[in-house]
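Lecture notes, continued. The same structure-token format from the folding unit now serves as the input rather than the output. Read the line below as a description of shape only.
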């Protein structure tokens, strides 16, 4: 499960140009659009973007 802090860290890595959305999605083994949406939501809501925990779970 990806919690708020985890998503924020991923988004901040993308926004700082440390990685791309595509590379982050591949690294996390989630769909590109999921990570893209995290970035979009973060740009709109900042640190209040991901309240609570997510139901998205990483598959093994």
């Amino acid at each position: 499960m990806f919690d708020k802090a985890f998503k924020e860290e991923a988004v901040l890595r993308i926004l700082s140009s440390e990685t791309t959305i595509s590379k982050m999605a591949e690294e996390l083994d989630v769909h590109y659009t999921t990570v893209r949406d995290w970035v979009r939501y973060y740009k709109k809501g900042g640190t209040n973007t991901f309240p609570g925990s997510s139901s998205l779970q990483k598959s093994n």
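Point for the exam: Residues 54-60 have pLDDT under 50 and may be disordered.
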